[in-house]
Amino acid sequence: ELKRVELRPILYRWDRDYGQDDKNRAEFDPLELDRFSTMQQLSRALMETVNDLGSINGLLADLQRETDTLLLQQSRISTDLQDGLLRTRMVPFQQLVPRLQRVVRQTADQLGKKANLETYGTDGEMDRTILNRMIPALEHLLRNAVSHGIEKPEARRFAEKDEAGRISLYMTREATDIVLTLSDDGNGLDINAIREKAIAQNLIDPNAQVEDDDLMQCVLMPGFSTASEVTQIAGRGVGLDVVSSEVKQLGGSLDIDSQPGRGTSFTIRLPLTLAITDALLMRVGDDVFAIPHGSVEGVVRISRSKLIACESGEEEGFSYAGRTYKNFYLGSMLGLSDSLPHETEKWIPLLLVQSGERRVALRIDELLGTRQIVVKSVGKQVSSVPWITGGTILADGRVALILDVGALVRLGTAHLQEQVEEGRKAAKREEERRVRVMVVDDSITVRKVTSRLLERHDMDVVTAKDGVDAVALLQEQIPDIMLLDIEMPRMDGFELARHVHNSVEYYGLPIIMISSRVGEKHRKRAFALGVRRCLGKPYQEAELLENIKDVLAESET
């Protein structure tokens, strides 16, 4: 059986070489006793050091794993503590129901009407602060439902409805939001009365075509009321604007839906708690904004080419899941900037937002991810902006404003759409006014230099390498002026000028001859073929531009 034998170098004549006088060593043959040199001692010490480093590395890895475990445990404990603290702020909504039912009964008795309040899903819980601040708003909505919505018993019998009006309050939870839906089976909002009142208060132009959904938003404006007389219940011009302001300050949103003769529905979306909420952080230009999760239907990516097609009007909009979304840049809606994404960006993020019947895809510069943010108040000056609901402080100390994209879409898309359409018309008019120049030269250098010069002066340029190529291009589009060389292969400048001069389609097309042949003989032949100007190579830029301007002016006259 073969055994593994460790081979070590034999240090023969070690005593003589290193001056050792150890007699015991001299008694042994080099094969009988190992002798080590300085190199072997240093290598052994190095190996021991490496082993020690490996051991230390293992200890550090164990400490890191223990630290990660402790951090995970601490995160779980802090999350449980946070959830516990939030639960202490939650109170059942059911305890508010008797008070709301009493408000409905008292208001109905004062107005000689009959109405009942029915609640669904009110066994859920809400943040104590939110609930306390929403009590006056809910009471006012109920008074409005009884006063403006529910008809008199005689009118309800005539409309084949129950004498007692039915007011329903639904409470549901969607992700981190609480949704309160207050609806009645009354006669709905009087769109014509709202339109007349809005025109009387100069809120809308009498000739403007305003959709019903936009007119409904007028009732949320301060001082707006369609009541013919002022009472303690209705007609004071204050109420719904206060409700909308209160909902907005709480970081929520208010939507109105009304069907004539069938009733009105108010949908209030509120955060589950004011302490912490989940939001999307995004960058628009140099600023960072936050949008609550409940305000966004989805996040998608779109290619740069498709985005340009959607925003330029070549396509109706961005299609997703069978729905079409109008494309807008969030920076333009906020009045910050208006620019296309950089050419290096192949995929651009879009936020899909729906507000009423409007579906909008908002383009942003960068999506920073999801964060749990603490909502802070931003003061009266900033909060007066309709689409700002609050702010938060990021980890690096920057302040990010929280946007109400629903209000932004309602208030901003109509005006922005007009600006976009006007910009497209202006761009089209500008494009129609741009001068189209055809440069015909066999030198690629001359073509490039001349094209860049003319494009810098807002001219559209098309190039041809010889006369045959120019004839083919003339069949596609006729330029305003032609810059022509003489010496070219296949068809020279004189032949092309003769073709243009003798063609009915191109007759009168102004030509400027640019060539190194500037002799009197060449000039006379060019003028005989209808050429307007003759310039020599190399030409002066200012001289060329001045001749183009003069020739175009002569052609117009």
From TrEMBL:
For the Histidine kinase domain, which residue ranges apply? 41-274
Which residues are recorded with the post-translational modification 4-aspartylphosphate? 485
> Which Pfam families would you find in this protein's record?
CheW, HATPase_c, Response_reg
**Catalysed reactions, semicolon-separated:** ATP + protein L-histidine = ADP + protein N-phospho-L-histidine
Keywords per UniProt: Kinase, Phosphoprotein, Transferase
Domain of life according to the entry: Bacteria
CheW-like domain mapped to chain residues: 276-414
Q: Which residues form the signal peptide?
A: none
Keyword Kinase present in the record's keywords: the answer is: yes
Annotated EC: 2.7.13.3
InterPro entries per UniProt: Bact_Chemotaxis_CheA, CheW-like_dom_sf, CheW-lke_dom, CheY-like_superfamily, HATPase_C_sf, HATPase_dom, His_kinase_dom, Sig_transdc_His_kin-like_C
MF term (GO), any: protein histidine kinase activity
- Say if the entry is tagged with keyword Kinase: yes
List, alphabetically, the PANTHER family matched.
HISTIDINE KINASE, SENSOR HISTIDINE KINASE CHEA
Q: What is known about what this protein does?
A: Involved in the transmission of sensory signals from the chemoreceptors to the flagellar motors. CheA is autophosphorylated; it can transfer its phosphate group to either CheB or CheY.
Q: Name the chain's protein.
A: Chemotaxis protein CheA
